[in-house]
Amino acid sequence: MSAVFLDLDGTLTDPKPGITGSAAYALKAVGLPEQDPEELTWMIGPALIDSFAKLGAADPAAALAAYREAYSGGGMFDCAVYDGIAEALAALRAAGHRLFLATAKPHVYAVQITERFGLDGYLEAQFGPEMDGTRNDKAELLVHALGQTGVMAETAVMVGDRVHDIVAGQKNGMATVGVRWGYGTDDELDQADAICEAPSDLPRVIETLLSGRAAG
Prior knowledge:
The protein is α/β, with parallel strands linked by helices. It folds into two domains: 3-14 and 81-215, 3-Layer(aba) Sandwich (Rossmann fold); 16-77, Putative phosphatase, domain 2 (DNA polymerase, domain 1). 43% of the residues lie in helices and 13% in strands. The protein has nine helices and eight strands. The strands form two sheets. It has a six-stranded parallel β-sheet, sandwiched between helices. A two-stranded antiparallel ribbon has the order 2-3. Strand 6 (156-160), helix 7 (163-171) and strand 7 form a beta-alpha-beta unit. Helix 2 packs across helix 3. The longest helix is centred in the N-terminal third of the chain and has 14 residues, at 16-29. The two termini are 17 Å apart.
């Protein structure tokens, strides 16, 4: 039985308003120049503490704490499930795939979001970093997830919209799918083993990729 590990932000949900709004709030809270939330979409996906460091925060941990204040206050639910995702997950489950969440978002937030939007029922287990930063690195998170689930990497696919999803999967010997509807650039997605243009195509792309791996 094969397994599909799915990113959350930019893959299952469009989290733009909640993340960028909370990030803009955090920058102002730590005394950095105000930024238009529209200019902060690049922060969707990677570990936020690293992004705040790139933005020049003298204390990235303080910026992250301010972000979490806004995000946990309601920002986390200011998102939407992409059209066609629920149907794609149902089709993957019906085809016999085990489905898991593998997100850079803290686990405590991720499980609330998937429950709120009805995605948790498709997922066998959900993996994300701890609030203290444990397993912030996505490759390390996948090592943990593979160990916890007993999944063999050669039978698994990592699906995401950013380069860190793809690199993490490849470091673990997993097949990788980059999705076009999220926030990754063409250069990021070109590193994936396969590219998916729309949620409705996801089951077919994954089946083709796994079949090719098995034959090879």
